[in-house]
Structure formats: C-alpha cells, structure tokens
Amino acid sequence: MQKLSESELSIMMKIWDANKPLYLEEIIELLKEYNWAESTVRNFLSRIIDKGYLRTEKDGRKNVYIPLVSQDYINKKSKGIIKKLYDNSVKKFVVELYESNFIDNNDLLELKKYLDEKIE
Predict the structure, then answer these.
(1) 105-119 vs 90-99: helix axis angle to the nearest 10?
(2) pTM, 2 dp
C-alpha cells in the first residue's frame, strides 16, 4: 500500500475520527481549518482512493466516502518504523525527538505524567 502524504493523512485522520461514512460536504467541513478549496479536497480524496485507503459509493447523486483501512493500520506502520529505525526502542525514539528539538521539556513532563498514571 502506498504511503499517504502529510495532507492525505490529515484527511484520513479526520475521516477515522468521524467513525462513519462521510459525504464530501462533511469532509470539507471537518477540514475547514486548512482553508482548502473544494477542488483541492477532491484531488486529495481521489489520491487517497487510488492508494486504497478509501472507497466511494453512490447515494443518489452524491458520493459517500468509506474507509477501507482502519486507523490500526497506521498504528502498526508506526510500530514498524520504531522497530526499523530505532531498534524497537521507544526510548531511542523519544531521545531522537528530544535531541532534534521536535519535543521540549514541557512535552517530556506531559509524557512523564501520562506514564506515571499508566504505571500506577
């Protein structure tokens, strides 16, 4: 399966969060923060369909967009990346994020709080 671009993944995340088939108008509404033209959204959706993540069905004169891939697929791919690039070490992954300034001390404190709650 082909990799999604960052924009395509943003769209799929919104569709997965909706947890139901969506019409184009609903997808555009979910993506309003990006200020994309309708034609841009249609192009992205077409690419996502071509990559096998979505399919469409006709509902009268409108298309309904239905995910073919669950969000679990992305979660599995993420685990594969950590395994491949960081020797299956979440610690090495977090260290790289910190050292590359992708996350800061506030992020680490938030992560620590989360981990402390999970350990208890």
Answers:
(1) 160
(2) 0.69
